[in-house]
Design a protein that fits this description.
Layout (H helix, E strand, L loop, with lengths): L1 H14 L5 E8 L1 H11 L2 E2 L5 H8 L6 E9 L2 E4 L23 E8 L2 E7 L5 E6 L2 E7 L1 H11 L9 H10 L8 E9 L2 E4 L25 E5 L4 E4 L5 E5 L1
Parallel strand pairs: 9-13
Antiparallel strand pairs: 1-7, 2-7, 3-4, 3-5, 5-6, 8-13, 9-10, 9-11, 11-12
């Protein structure tokens, strides 16, 4: 079975072009873009890694786009929750001018792929972050296939902000108490099936089975906000993108 999963991982990694981010070409103010993303998808996109940046550069170049980064009093925050760190500002940014509290990213600009803070009423196209909770109970393998066939991929949760956004999506009573995510123990490590680097962790401190799992080799996110290692044959709801 693990050989089959490894083959499926290769297929997903070469076919998922833009990951969890949806490019919306219609220009809006930052707050209108945020509302649009929350109404139609999940939220304005957090760009929390170089991996994300490389994915989006394949989509657009040479134009600025709103992302979900804003100044909350004295701290730069992501719209979906969580502090922003290691921000790749353009030269002279952030300038902290009055009311320049929202951030756009420009791929392929003269100064490189960098972030600029602008007044939130400026109009730009934008990226929405899109997670899809599938309210069908499936085993981990069948959930993986469903995400690949019906959507793009089984979701990774590669940062605190992505974790918080997923947690917000699964709180309804009719969703199972835990949901599958695209994290699987393969060979000797936990691996995101969409190819995202496995850096961020949110394991339940009481769950020792994730250290070197024998049977519980698939990961689920609980409504309490932690990851659990589970038997892959359990049937749960799951998250795709």
């Amino acid at each position: 079975m693990e050989i089959l999963v490894l083959k499926m991982l290769f297929i997903v990694s070469v076919s998922a072009q833009y990951g969890k981010h949806v490019h919306v070409e219609r220009a809006m103010s930052w707050s209108d873009a945020q509302k649009y993303c929350r109404d139609h998808y999940t939220d304005l996109s957090p760009i929390t890694s170089k991996w994300d940046e490389e994915k989006l550069k394949n989509e657009v170049s040479g134009t600025s786009f709103w992302i979900g980064l804003y100044l909350n009093q004295e701290h730069w925050m992501w719209s979906g929750g969580g502090n922003a760190t290691n921000i790749s500002w353009a030269n002279g940014e952030p300038n902290y001018l009055e009311k320049e509290r929202s951030v756009a990213i420009c791929f392929g600009c003269i100064s490189g792929d960098r972030l600029y803070n602008y007044p939130s009423w400026f109009y730009y196209p934008f990226f929405c972050f899109n997670l899809i909770v599938v309210e069908i109970e499936k085993t981990w393998e069948t959930a993986f296939s469903y995400c690949r066939n019906k959507h793009t991929a089984f979701t990774s949760l590669a940062s605190e902000t992505e974790h918080l956004l997923a947690l917000r999506k699964i709180q309804q009573d009719h969703i199972t108490e835990r949901v599958w995510i695209g994290l699987r123990y393969l060979v000797d490590r936990w691996t995101w099936m969409d190819g995202h680097p496995s850096v961020y962790r949110a394991w339940d401190k009481e769950d020792q089975d994730n250290q070197c799992p024998i049977w519980k080799r698939c990961a689920a996110l609980t409504k309490g906000g932690v990851w659990e290692s589970r038997d892959c044959t359990d049937k749960l709801n799951f998250i795709c993108y």
